[in-house]
Amino acid sequence: MIRHIVTFTLLADTDALRHTQAAWIAAQLESLVPLIPEIVALSVYPDVQQTPANADVVLVSDFADHAALDRYQSHPDHVRVSAGIRELVASRAAIDFTL
């Protein structure tokens, strides 16, 4: 099992906009679950502390293996959703590891 974690720091300059964008990102990513069979599990969470040094949103997702993660990342629906999210993001970090 591969866990794929991605953190996003948003460009939003107000808490209200950051909250709205984080909710939209969560909805977009969660919409992929029924569309991409490689997704074993997927959750998206906002930073509840809103600590300035923290990322604003985290994606935690699981895949059977590296090949499944690769298929997810190149899936047209993931590419479409990622393009929309990218416009809102100042920085992104990711890590993949074996469970």
Compact summary:
By secondary structure, the protein is α+β, with helices and mostly antiparallel strands.
Key features?
four-stranded antiparallel beta sheet, Alpha-Beta Plaits, 4 strands, 3 helices, 34% strand, 99 residues, 36% helix, alpha+beta
Notes on the structure:
This protein is an alpha+beta fold and 99 residues long. The chain has one domain: Alpha-Beta Plaits (2-Layer Sandwich), CATH 3.30.70.100. Helices cover 36% and strands 34% of the residues. It has a four-stranded antiparallel beta sheet with strand order 2-3-1-4. The mean pLDDT is 96.
The backbone outline, from C-alpha atoms, is globular
Q: How many angstroms does the end-to-end distance come to?
A: 5 Å
Uncertain segments are none
Helix/strand/pairing class, anyone? alpha+beta
- Into which percent range does the helicity of residues fall? 25-40%
Reported by name, the CATH topology is Alpha-Beta Plaits
Question: Layout of SSEs?
Answer:
Elements lengths: L1 E9 L4 H16 L8 E8 L10 E7 L2 H9 L1 H11 L2 E10 L1
Antiparallel strand pairs: 1-3, 1-4, 2-3
InterPro entries: Dabb, Dimeric_a/b-barrel
Protein name: Dabb family protein
